[in-house]
Amino acid sequence: MGKVKGRMDESILVCVYYGPNGERLIRRGHKMASIMDCPLYILTVDPLPYDEFDADKSDYVDRWKELAEELDVEEFIIRDNEKRPSAKVIAEVSHKLNITQIIIGQTAQSRWEEITKGSFMNVLLREITFVDFHVVSVDRAIKAEVDGMFEKGVRAYLVKDGEGFRVNFTLTKNACFEGIFFKETGTDFNNGIFKFMSNRKMCQVHITDDQVTNPTLISCKINQ
């Protein structure tokens, strides 16, 4: 990792958390870093020790590491077993690396989501001066793949329903997958597409009247 970059007065930090937005944020950061010819760093923060990560978290981290190698990222940073507020960690890493651009994604269960609510951003702005922030929602990132046949994506979950799945818009203990539901335009029913991450791949299923049309025909692909 880390070839010598032509421009060292700029540097980009991508903050990622578990969910369907992480890989896209990294690729967006890489695109910006390529244009600016500057170093790119990736940061993830977790209150648990690394050896206590579950399979899903480990899969995300492994994929991010692969991307960091593939895209020649300067450094992939994991701050595990971290008990301090995430703003403190971001500020510390930013000061250490002389970061000038920070990219953060909004996800439903992430510690970064507070950023869009104001108070967290104010804390960051007080602690990190002369830095540009880029906050990207999951809806915006994934919706780029969906054409005008669908309405704006909304947060949703797939829950078990007999031998199949149905879409639910409230997070419950029975939720199996978290993602974005894109409802078909011109219909009063929940017909459309549900997009979600599974095993480091972007997947989608068709929804008809709240139900997954055919659970055995889940279409998945690695994000490009």
TrEMBL record:
Q: Name one GO molecular function term.
A: phosphorelay sensor kinase activity
Database matches in Gene3D superfamilies: HUPs (3.40.50.620)
> What cellular component GO annotations does this protein have?
plasma membrane
Task: Extract the SUPFAM superfamilies matched here.
Answer: Adenine nucleotide alpha hydrolases-like
The protein's name in its UniProt record? Sensor protein KdpD
Q: From which lineage does this chain's organism come?
A: Bacteria, Bacillati, Bacillota, Bacilli, Bacillales
